Amino acid sequence: MFNNLSEKLDKALHTLKGHGKINEVNVAETLKEVRRALLDADVNFKIAKQFTNTVKEKAMGADVLTTLNPGQLMVKIVKDELTELMGGDTVGINLGGSPTVILMSGLQGSGKTTFSGKLANFLKTKKTKQVLLVGCDVYRPAAINQLQVVGEQIGVEVYAEVGNQNPVEISQNAIKHAKANGKNVVIIDTAGRLAVDEEMMTEISNIHKAVTPNETLFVVDSMTGQDAVNTAKAFNDVLNFDGVVLTKLDGDTRGGAALSIKSVVDKPIKFIGTGEKMDAIDVFHPDRMADRILGMGDVVSLVERAQEQYDEAEARKLQKKIAKNQFGFDDFLNQIQQIKKMGSMKDLVGMIPGAGKALKGMDIDDDAFKGIEAIIYSMTPDERSKPSLINASRKKRIAKGSGTSVQEVNQLMKQFEQMSKMMKMMQGGGGKRMMQMMRGMR
Question: What's the pTM value of the predicted model, to 2 decimals?
Answer without folding.
Answer: 0.66
